[in-house]
Amino acid sequence: MTHTPHRLEVENVSVAYGDKNVLNEVSFQVTHGARIAVVGPNGAGKSTLFKALVGLLPLKTGRILIHGLPLGNHKDCVAYIPQREEVDWRFPVSVRDVVMMGRFNSHGWFSRPNPADAVVVERSLAEMSIANLSDVSISDLSGGQQQRVFLARALAQEPHILLMDEPFTGVDITTQDATLKLLDRLQQRQVTTIISTHDLNLAATRFDMVLLINKRLVAFGTPAQALTQENLQKAFGNSLLVMDSGAMLVDACCPPDEEHHHDVVVEPFFKNGV
Ligand SMILES: Nc1ncnc2c1ncn2[C@@H]1O[C@H](COP(=O)(O)OP(=O)(O)OP(=O)(O)O)[C@@H](O)[C@H]1O
Ligand SMILES: [Mg+2]
Question: Which of 13, 15, 20, 57 to mutate to test the pocket of ligand 1 (most atoms within 8 A of CB)?
Fold first, then answer.
C-alpha cells in the first residue's frame, strides 16, 4: 500500500501563555497545495496557532509534522506573514532588505547573499509590483504596500507552506486582489496556504477548506461543511445573528472592551451547509 504523506499534520496541539490555555487539543491535517481559511472570533487563538505552526511558541501538548517530520527539520519551508499590527514598521530598513531577509533561512544569517539570492529577491519584488519601491524605507509605506513587501519576502523564501495572519484586514482593494491572485499562482505551484480572516464570505468563496476555531477546533472541512449555522454558533456564540432571510451576521469582535468591529454577512446559501 502506498502512503501519500500529508504536508502538514497537527496532532493534539495545545498552547498556553503561562497558565492560560489558548489552544486546546487541536488536530487537523492538510494535504499539499490546499488553501485553508482560519476563522474564529477575536481571541480565538488564530495568531497563536500560526505562531505555533512556525515554531515561535512551545507546544504544551501534541506535535506538528511537516512532510512526516517534526517542526524544526523544515523551518525554511514554512513562511509566516504576521498580523500587520504585530510588526514595528518604524524600523529603518529598505524594502529590498526586508525581502532579502526571506533568503536568510536558506543559508544562515551571517553568510553573504549570493547572486542567485539577488535574482530571487528582484523577481519577488516584481511579482508583487513593488520593484519601484525597492530603496524606500518600510516606515514610509502605506498599509497595502507593507502587505506587498511581506508577501514578496515570503515569496523569496520559496516556501512549501505559507501562513498569512489577516492579510485582508485594513488593506486597499488592489492589494486584496493582488493577494488573491498570488494565492492562485501559489496553488499552481503546490504551495499550501493557510490564511486567517474575519471575512466569512471570502472564506466561503475563495478557499478549499475552512478551519473554524475558538480556543479549540470547532470544525474543519469544505466551506459548506464548516460554515454551517450550528458551527458558526459554536464558534461565535451570541455574536452570531441569523436574519429572516437566512443570512447570518457575525459580530466577530466579542469582548466589549475591544475597539475594532467587523460585521460580516454570510450568504444564506451556507445556512444549511449546502
Ligand atoms: N503574548 C501573550 N501573552 C498572553 N496572552 C496572550 C498573548 N498573545 C495572545 N494572548 C491571548 O491569547 C488569546 C488568543 O490570542 P490570539 O492573538 O491568538 O487570538 P486571535 O484569534 O488571533 O485574535 P484576533 O482576531 O483579535 O487577531 C487571547 O485571549 C489573547 O489575549
Ligand atoms: Mg490574531
Answer: 20
Residue 261, CB-side half-sphere exposure with 13 Å CA sphere? 7
**pLDDT-based confidence at 264, cuts 50/70/90?**
very low
pLDDT reading at 60 higher than 80:
yes
Distance 50 CA to ligand 2 centre (A): 9
Task: Give CA torsion, residues 167, 169, 171, 175, to 10 deg.
Answer: 40
Report residue 66 as a C-alpha cell: 511537516
**Closest listed ligand to the CA of 213:** 1
Residue 259 has pLDDT above 70, yes or no: no
What pTM did the predictor assign? Answer: 0.87
- Mean pLDDT along residues 137-151: 90
Does ligand 1 have an atom closer than 6 angstroms to the CB of 45? yes
| pLDDT of the residue at 71 | 83
Q: Residue ranges per domain, the chain?
A: 87-158
Supply the residue whose CA is at minimum distance from atom 9 of ligand 1. Answer: 48
Distance 45 CA to ligand 2 centre (A): 7
Which of 233-256 are b and which e, b meaning 16 or more Cβ less than 10 Å from the residue's Cβ?
A: eebbeebbeeeeeeebebebbeee
| Residue that wins the pLDDT comparison between 172 and 208 | 208
Mean pLDDT estimate for the chain: 85
